[in-house]
Structures are given as structure tokens and as C-alpha cells.
Amino acid sequence: MSDKPNDYWSANIRVITICLVIWAVVSYGFGILLRPILSGIPIGGTDLGFWFAQQGSIIVFIALIFYYAVYMNRLDREHGVDEQ
């Protein structure tokens, strides 16, 4: 176990905050707020803004889930709280 138990939780909260900010920027920023700017860029038969709103935010969310799982497994091992 780590010398400072709060280090584990602060690292956990930090990665959760970063993941949520990335997801919000992709979902709301690219899919809603920046959609008019991205509408001129074609991708997959539609414009990039629509793609981010319909597909991109979901793909980024799934990638963030995998990143979080890998990161937390590493953090658990570093702090001696892993399941193995």
C-alpha cells in the first residue's frame, strides 16, 4: 500500500475528471457547439459535425472506458490494491 492513501484517490479523481472533460468536449463541443464549423468537412457520406454527434462521441466514450480500465489497473498495482 502507498504511504499516502489519499494519493490513490486523488489520482483516481484526476483521471475521472480528465475523461469526463474529454468526453464533454467531444460530445458537446464537436457535436453541438462546433457543428456549424465542421459541417463543411465530409466524412462517411455526411458532415463531420453530424458524425461526431452520432458516432464520434460514442467511439471516444468507448475508448475512454478502455483507457480508464488500463489506467486503473496500473494505479491499483502501484498502490498495492490490485485484485491479484
UniProtKB/TrEMBL annotation:
This protein's record includes keyword Iron: no
InterPro entries (UniProt xref): Na_symporter_ssu
Residue ranges of coiled coil: none
TM regions (residue ranges): 12-38, 50-70
Domain of life (superkingdom): Bacteria
Keyword Transmembrane helix attributed: yes
Residue ranges occupied by any Sodium symporter small subunit domain in the UniProt entry: 7-82
Keywords associated with the record: Membrane, Transmembrane, Transmembrane helix
Name of this chain's protein: Sodium symporter small subunit domain-containing protein
Organism: Pseudorhizobium endolithicum
